[in-house]
Amino acid sequence: MTRTPLPLLVSFALLTACNIKEDREEFNELDRLRVMAVQVEPAQVPLGETATLRALVYDPAGRDITYEWSWCPVRNGSGDGFSCALPEDELQEVWDALGTRMELPPYDLGDGESAEFDNVFAPDMVAGLCQVLIGEQTADERAILACLLGLDISVQVVVRAGGDELVVLRTVELADADVDPEDLNHNPEVSAELEVSLRDDEDASLDADTLIRGEVHKLIAMATEDQAETFLPEKRDGLDAPTARRETLFMEWFITAGQMEEGDEEGPRDDDDGGGGRTTTYVDGGDFAEDLLENYWDIRKSETARSARLFMVLHDERGGVGWAEHSFDIGAAQ
Predict the structure, then answer these.
(1) N or C: which end of the chain has fewer CB within 10 A?
(2) Burial of 88 (0-12, 13-18, 19+ CB in 10 A)
(3) In a shared domain, residues 260 and 132
(4) Which of 240, 212, 228, 231 is nearest to 308 (CA)?
(5) Residue 123: CB atoms within 10 Å
(6) Could you report the per-residue pLDDT of 42-76, keeping only the tens digit for each?
């Protein structure tokens, strides 16, 4: 019943008041309505427990933001707009036929800043659901396939601000009934606290909440190494049995001013690939602090903004996500 989820399954936008920028270097620059991440807490939802869903949203115009949350057990493909392949009334009819005493959550999860989803899908209920669907001549093929492979629960959140609308889908991973609680994945955490220094003078006195126009800043985020949990990867056909290892983590750095740059021991550098420091990654065996937590932020002399915000979104490879934000003033060049 478990699957390895994508942290963010898919996101698509209907922006009536903004033009979508195609330049890949704009990925982490927050100049329009954005949904940077959707978190499911807990990251793996045990049977009978409730998950809390929340989204990290930014709107540079500071408009009122509204939310619409819903879920679906199986979706159509991109050609059909990822619509739900199994109508709610049909699922409810099958569910009622199983005679379970557990109440099926309604597809509509509300319009709050956060939402809740109940995991009622016991293995015998899923098996019974599949048997009924297979016996139905009118059953949707995608619904049947989803049952056979394991239910792929996804949550949709529609975020609106003014005339702009974003639609984001997020996979919800259901924990196997027999999983040891100690083996469950947890959402990683990153602190809002930062160490900030100048690339060219790390010993210079610098207010932690101030960036200097015309300078490149070295940032060190705060997270503990145990955020990369040790786990046993799934056995894949044709490959040797896996061994336990630490999770791969990656951090996305979203900013409202300036530019993140890739750095090494000699500071940031430009490259033809435009890779930059928009994302940093830790892989088991690497240097946790240097590979994941360090980055460089260039506030050029031409920058006109007087303040800036930084959002650090930390993902693990099993679908967990956590985030923190930090606000800065931008001071005059020294």
Answers:
(1) C
(2) middle
(3) no
(4) 212
(5) 14
(6) 999 999 999 999 999 999 999 999 999 999 988 88
Q: How confident is the model over 93-129, as pLDDT tens digits?
A: 888 888 888 899 999 999 999 999 999 988 878 887 7
Domain identity same for 100 and 120: yes
Residue 177 and residue 214 in one domain? no
Residue 268, domain member (yes or no): yes
- The count of C-alpha atoms lying within 13 angstroms of the C-alpha of 72, restricted to the half-sphere facing its C-beta, is 17
Q: Does 151 share its domain with 15?
A: yes
Q: Which domain holds residue 222?
A: 194-331
Residue 233 shares a structural domain with residue 300 = yes
**Beta pairing class for 44-45 and 173-174:** parallel
Answer for the pair 109, 155: CB distance below 8 angstroms, yes or no: yes
Quick one: 14 exposed, middle or buried, by C-beta within 10 A (0-12, 13-18, 19+)?
exposed
Per-residue tokens: 232: 């046993």
- The token duo for 288 is 């946790």
Residue 320 is encoded by which pair of tokens? 């967990």
DSSP alpha helices (H): ranges in 139-282? 141-149
Kind of pairing between the strands at 154-161 and 65-72: antiparallel
- Co-location of 216 and 321 in the same domain: yes
> How many helices, marked H, and strands, marked E, lie in the chain?
4, 22
Residue 195 DSSP label:
E
The domain that holds 254 is classified in CATH as 2.60.40
